[in-house]
Amino acid sequence: MGTENSSRRGRTIASAAAALLLAGGITTIGLGLHAEPPVPGGTSTVSASAPARAPFPDASSPAPAPLTDPVNAPAPPIPPSAAVPAAPDAALPASAPVRVEVPAIGVDAALTPVGKQANGEVQTPSGEPGSSGGWYQDSPTPGQSGSAVILGHVNTTNSDVGLFYRLHELTPGQAITVTRADHTAAVFTVDKVDVYHKATFPTVAVYRNADRPEIRLITCGGYDPVTREYLDNTVVYAHLSSSHPA
């Protein structure tokens, strides 16, 4: 009975988080730092006075219940013999993500939670070289039922190449591994990669509450050398395919 209640509670939190995302009126995510036209050598000058941020108005919907995570009292590691593939709908309990790995595009980086600023705009990770990616903490944790959202810059403050510079190169079937604070690794399989113009960003398609554990990796694309801005968003869709001790 306790397991059933826990599962139902997890689905409720995920549903509330998805409702908040949609009610918040997300249209785009600004993860391409304002850049000067690229120069030989692959570097660019970035305006530090204009950090990239995405519109994220405050929603009238109540905030989702806080996600609990045993960060200060981690669970003991799971014996290797207990590692089994997860069924497509076998959601994991809530646990904050701490690292993301995408071997196919050379990504291996820490993750930090990001939320909303006082003006309602979503926070984005630091644009400094070597900075972590960001998990949007009002979305489910990776492995929970629903759509977890992870953000990464396409460039940095001194280079054209950011954490998710090669995100558009991912193809269906490739793996994304998210290490969580409870010492589990959630492995996701890429379903598809879409590129959307920011003016026609399909909010519902990207942020709707999935009925299974899924993840979205998001960055910017479509650099316009005339305006020195990124006009598109690249979105990777993936589903939980297995989990194992980390």
Concise account of the structure shown:
The chain is mainly β and 246 residues long. 11% of the residues lie in helices and 30% in strands. An eight-stranded mixed β-barrel has the order 1-2-3-4-7-8-6-5.
Q: What features would you describe in this structure?
A:
This protein has 246 residues and is mainly beta. The protein has a single domain, classed as Beta Barrel (Sortase, Chain: A), CATH 2.40.260.10. It has an eight-stranded mixed beta barrel with strand order 1-2-3-4-7-8-6-5. It is 11% helix and 30% strand. The radius of gyration is 18 Å and the shape is globular.
Q: Which helices and strands appear, and what pairs or packs with what?
A:
Blueprint: H1 2-23, E1 97-102, E2 107-114, E3 133-136, E4 146-151, E5 175-180, E6 184-197, H2 203-207, E7 213-224, E8 229-245
Parallel strand pairs: 2-3, 4-7
Antiparallel strand pairs: 1-2, 1-5, 3-4, 5-6, 6-8, 7-8
CATH superfamily: Sortase
CATH level-3 fold name = Sortase, Chain: A
Instruction: State which percent range the strand residues make up.
Output: 25-35%
Give the fraction of residues assigned to helices: 10-25%
Low-confidence stretches: 1-27, 34-86
> Which CATH architecture is right?
Beta Barrel
Radius of gyration: 18 Å
* Sheet having the most strands: 8 strands, mixed, barrel
End-to-end C-alpha gap:
28 Å
Helix count, DSSP H or I runs of 4 or more residues? 2
Number of domains: 1
CATH class: Mainly Beta
Helix/strand structural class: mainly beta
What is the general shape?
A: globular
